[in-house]
Structure formats: structure tokens, C-alpha cells
Amino acid sequence: MLNPLVRIIVCVAFSATPSAENPLAVDIGGSPPVPVLYELGIDSVLASDSSITVLQESIMQWYLEEGYPFAGAGYYFASDDSLRVNTVPGRHALLEEVRIEGAPGTRSEIFTRLLAIETGDTYDREAVNTWIARIEQLKFIKAAGITELFLGEGGNIVIVQHVEKGRSGHFAASMDWHGDNLEGAGEILFLNLAGTARELEISGQTTEWGGFNAYLRYREPWLFGIPLSAQLEASQETPESSWVNREGSLSVIWSIDRTEIMGGAGIWRGYPPDGERQKYDYGMGGIAFRTGHRVPQGWNGIEIRLEARSGNRTGQDSSGILTIAELITDGNVYSGVMGFGGRLLTGGVMQGDWFEGLLEQLGGQETIRGYPENAFRAVRYAVARPEISLGETETRVYLFCDLAAIRTPEDGMRYPVGCGAGIRGMSGFFHADAAAGFPIQEGFGSARFYLRLTASI
After folding, report:
1. What is the C-alpha to C-alpha distance for residues 47 and 55, in angstroms, rounded to an integer?
2. Do 25 and 44 meet the contact criterion of CB atoms below 8 Å apart?
3. pTM here?
């Protein structure tokens, strides 16, 4: 059973009676030292019962959050305009238990393993603050709520942490339409599979030449009880008719607060319609950083991902070292009803000769809107996707203009630009994003229409 935390407060007033109209000079003594008044959230203290009571509660609350549930304090007027406070912290409590409220179906250790202290350790306020920030970084948590402290049966601190669940994944379907050309894609994503924080992503996409692209990703978090995850990826794509590429990779990911460091290895095999099989065996490394917080309009912050692959390529009587890198930056800033943000993509072949089937394919809803999916093969590329949006919630009208500089294997440099407008928004468990974009060089008559429907789970 949880009990309210005990606080001992002693108040002694000398015969001098200060004026209740003028602010008092407050001198607080004790160890650990109590912060100054403004850090306690107090502007000033008057010589009145209500004002001194507020001061008492603020000091005791500060000691409680520092891990001293049995702190006491004595108050007396040293002069007409000066109040002296002597504090006694009492015993520094231990952490007795951690409870999570608001996440039914999710195992409690998913949250508690992020806490740097364990039950039986001395309670540490800084460790708890860091823990709350880590909880808010979980992809399936919308926000960390209030943190309540209670006195447990063992005479130490019990933390009851409230959380607000976000989406644990989604089912999504999207389409790209222009004239008689219709392409579709589907995706299933689990961010908290069976309440274990395991991630599973499966997606598929049709191509205009009748092919099918498929992708699978599985992530197993916290191997050996430490913040080390393993991730398996496998994919198949058809860059052209009768051409198939297959790829698989295994990586390990170390999580440090808001940063993830990745390393691993993979294999790629290309089967062009004419010619022998192409092989690329590589090692890979990367880093990802994400910071920000959720607001009614969405995620207000920035995410940066850098990944590089390097290894031996063989095929068509040739071989050599090939190095490929990619940098993705996503960011959004909301100010009132206005929103500014977008995505920056850059990368390509950094060293060595390439196979054409290995090159990044650009175009479509995720890269350069207004152009067909996979319209360009890029040896090197830079794509900026700025947006301006308007709305008070996640339902927003937006304008975009995607600009790219692409070095292609056939035509040298290309500079496609696609502009347009769209609307995206939430209604219950459903999220919709509808847009129209057109290549600047071709005008409105070449507009393509995009629709993506997502059902959150």
C-alpha cells in the first residue's frame, strides 16, 4: 500500500511583527542547499500565513524530488524584514519500486530498463529526469505525463509514472495516379509488437512495368539486457522489366540517449535481363539522432540519419571497392498556425565504379513529387523538399516545392523541380495525405495525384 510522503514542518515566530505588505528577505540554510526563490517558482514572500505556507510547500516539494521525503524546516523572523529558514533533509531515501500507468499491454520493463538506477539504489532526481526524457523518445509513446512519488511499505520512494500512448504502428496504402498510369503500395508497421518494443515493417509496391518491390525490416531491442539492438533487413526490387535485385543485411544498433550508432554487413545481388549476376558484399555503419517534442501539430524537432556502405563489387569480368553513402534530415518547426519544415536527401557513390541496378532511384511521393516513381537513377544527388503548412492541429494544408540536383549515368546533371499543394490530417485512428504535384518544366497538364491512407494501431 502506498502512503503519502511524511513532511515535518516547524514554524517559530519571534516577537517582532513584520509588515505583511513588504517582501521579506529570505535566507535558507541547510544541506543540500535549497535553490533561490525564483528557481522554486516563487517571486516573493510576504509576512503572511498564506505566503509562508507556499514557501514551506515549495521547499518540501524540492526536498521530496531530491529524494528526501522526511525533510523538516524551522522558520523564524531574524528581523522585521528578514525570514530565516533552517532545513534538515533527513534520510536520503532509496528507490523502492517503479510503476507505469497508462500503457496497458506494454511490459513495464520496456520503460524501467531506460532508468539508470535500479530498485535498492539511492534515489537520484537527475536520473529520473533523464529517464522521463528517454520515455518521450519512444516511438509508440505520445507523451510522458506526471510523475508521482509515494512512500512504499519499505519506507522508501515509489515512482508512479503516467504515460500517454501514441500509435503502436499502422496499416497504410498509397497510390500515385497520372492519366492511365496508376501505381499502388501497401505497408504494415508495428512499433511495439506484442508490447515488447520489437519493430516489424513490411511493405510492397507495384511498378508501371508490372514488377513488384518488397521490403521487410525486423528489430530486436535490448539484447543481453543492455541498449543494444539487432536489426534484419531484406528486400527485392525490379528496377526494370525482367530485372531483379535482392538484398539482405544484419546490423547491431547501440542506443545512447537520443543517438543511435549502427554497424553491420550485407549482401546485394543483381540479376539484369542480359548479362551475368552482379555481386556486392559490404560492411556498413551509421548514426542517427532525434530530438524534439510532440505538439498538437505533430513532431516539433529534427531527425538526422547518416549511413554508409563499403565493400567489394564483382560482375561482368570486373571487380573493385564501391562506397555508397546517404544522409537524410527531417525537421519541422511550428509557430502558431504556421509550420515550416521538410526533408533533405543527399548521397550517392562516393568511391568506385557502380552497377546501374545499385544506384538510388528518385521520383514520386517520397522523394521528388510531381515525377513518376523511380524516374531517375542517381550516381550522386541532393534533394530538398521544403514545405509551408497552415493549421492548428495535425490537419494542415501545405505547399511544397521539391528541388533536386542529380548526376545520372546517362545524361550527366539533371535539375528536376516539382511543386504543388496538399492536405493531410487525422480523424480518429485514420490519417490521410492527399496532394497534387507537377514538374515545373512541364506545367499543370503533367500533374500527378498522390493519396496515402493510414490506419493507426
Report:
1. 11
2. no
3. 0.84
For 225-243, letters b (16+ CB in 10 Å) and e give eebebebebebbbbbeeeb
Q: Which of 128, 102, 96, 99 is nearest to 114 (CA)?
A: 128
pLDDT for residue 179 is more than 80: no
The stretch 120-140 carries a mean pLDDT of 92
Q: What percent of the chain has pLDDT over 90?
A: 63
Residue 184's pLDDT band (cuts 50, 70, 90): confident
Give the tens place of pLDDT for each residue, 292-307. Answer: 888 889 889 999 999 9
Measured between alpha carbons, how far is 156 from 398 in angstroms, rounded to an integer? Answer: 52
The reported pLDDT for the residue numbered 194 is 92
Lowest mean pLDDT among 41-45, 119-123, 306-310: 41-45
pLDDT at 293: 83
**What is the C-alpha separation between 354 and 350, in angstroms, rounded?**
10
Mean pLDDT confidence for 11-22:
54
* Dist CA 253 CA 110 (whole Å): 17
Cα–Cα nearest to 243, from 349, 346, 359: 359
In the chain the domains, ranked by start, together with CATH numbers, are: 8-88 (3.10.20), 95-165 (3.10.20.310), 169-456 (2.40.160.50)
SS (H, E, C) the chain: CCECCCCEEEECCCCCCCCCCCCCEEEEECCCCCCCHHHHCCCCCCCCHHHHHHHHHHHHHHHHHHCCCCCEEEEEEEECCEEEEEEECCCCCEEEEEEEECCCCCCCHHHHCCCCCCCCCECCHHHHHHHHHHHHHCCCEEEEEEEEEEECCCCCEEEEEEEEECCCEEEEEEEEEECCEEEEEEEEEEEEECCCCEEEEEEEEECCCCCEEEEEEEEECCHHHCCEEEEEEEEEECCCCCCEEEEEEEEEEEEECCEEEEEEEEEEEEECCCCCCEEEEEEEEEEEEEEEEEECCEEEEEEEEEEEEEEEEEECCEEEEEEEEEEEEEEEEEECCEEEEEEEEEEEEEECCCCHHHCEEECCCCCCCCCCCCCEEECEEEEEEEEEEECCCCCEEEEEEEEEEEEECCCEEECCEEEEEEEEEEECCEEEEEEEEEECCCCHHHCEEEEEEEEEC
| Average pLDDT score over residue span 306-322 | 89
